[in-house]
Write a structure and sequence with these properties.
- The structure holds two protein chains of two kinds.
- Chain A is mainly α.
- Chain A is built from four helices and no strands.
- The model of chain A has no long low-confidence stretch (mean pLDDT about 85).
- Chain B contains seven helices and two strands.
- Chain B has one domain.
- Chain B is mainly α.
- The chains are: A mainly alpha, B mainly alpha.
- The interface between A and B is medium-sized, with 16 and 19 residues.
Chain lengths: ~90, ~220
């Protein structure tokens, strides 16, 4: 395999790993947050407005971790910063 | 398929490029300004019957004000123009996706970075306005001077997160629709686009609320002492 192939393969595999591993923790965290918020709303239905607003803010915070992973995966596939360098090296 | 609307360039003029992000931002600004001007041109008083447009705009403004008041009970009207503009700009740019040919300007990192920078400027400005220059910056040295770099780091990273979160959510919605259009056209993209519309509204809400949370934190810090 030449350099360009290795570079492409590594980028794609690592983008997939980035997404796969990077979404585990936020998924667990969001699930836990939603479960707790639902339990809180079930106990105190009057406070549902405050709870759901805080929940949405918290979910956005947690989700930003998954979004970082997604952005890095997208960058690796569509806008790889090392791509030009490798092509220049391989092309001579 | 374009990653962001930055890559769609209409006019090249030397170093200046008129790309889709800028053009659709201008269109959106023109739309929002025209609608607001047309509706607020002849406002009805409290006792007179209102037009349906005035009713609609009052519902929006009242709801935004109620959300701000829930986070910052004093002086909600001070922050209403800023937070309301942020929310309306982001929500309209996402919702106009239903118009064929529209590219949401918030799917470009430049737009979201600009919005996040304006939040990053507004937070210290509102903080200084409410408690004075020295009192605001003294907070950075609390509890000890050692915490100064961590305060700065946290402010930078939360603004970065604000920009990247909005960009990632809006861009992924457009992107998934584009991919499905290539794989399974016609029916498969429709539910994903509905999801993208929902995400757009939620992200607009989250962006505005987070901006308000940051401002409220900067303002209320001084009141607690």
């Amino acid at each position: 395999m030449d350099k360009v192939t290795v570079m492409g393969a590594v980028s794609i595999i690592m983008a997939a790993f980035c997404m796969a591993i990077g979404s585990i923790a936020p998924a667990l965290g969001e699930g836990r947050a939603v479960a707790q918020a639902l339990a809180a709303i079930a106990q105190q239905p009057d406070e549902s407005a405050t709870i759901s607003r805080t929940l949405l803010i918290g979910l956005a915070m947690i989700e930003s971790i998954a979004i970082y992973c997604f952005v890095i995966a997208i960058v690796l596939i569509f806008a790889n910063p090392f791509w030009n360098y490798v092509i220049a090296k391989a092309g001579g | 398929m374009h990653l962001t609307p930055d890559h769609i360039v209409f006019i090249r003029w030397g170093l200046l490029h008129l790309n889709a992000t800028i053009l659709y931002t201008w269109i959106l600004i023109a739309l929002l300004t025209t609608f607001s001007w047309l509706i607020t041109r002849s406002l009805a008083g409290p006792a007179e019957p209102r037009s349906r447009w005035q009713n609609a705009i009052e519902v929006i403004v009242e709801n935004i004000r109620a959300q701000i008041r829930a986070l910052c009970p004093t002086g909600a009207d001070t922050y209403l123009p800023f937070i309301g503009s942020l929310f309306l700009f982001i929500v309209c740019s996402s919702l106009l996706e239903i118009v064929p040919g529209w590219h949401a300007p918030t799917a470009s990192l430049s737009t979201t970075a600009a919005l996040a920078i304006s939040v990053g400027v507004a937070v210290p400005v509102f903080g200084i306005l409410s408690q004075g220059f020295a009192a605001y910056f003294r907070h950075y040295l609390r509890p000890t001077v050692i915490m100064l770099p961590f305060h700065l780091l946290s402010e930078t990273s939360r603004n970065l997160a604000l920009a990247v979160r909005l960009f990632g959510n809006i861009m992924s919605g457009a992107m998934i629709a584009g991919m499905l259009l290539a794989i399974a056209p016609f029916f498969a993209p429709v539910p994903m686009q509905m999801l993208a519309l929902l995400t757009g509204v939620i992200q607009a809400y989250v962006f505005a609320i987070l901006a308000m949370v940051y401002i409220a934190a900067a303002v209320q810090r001084g009141q607690e002492g």
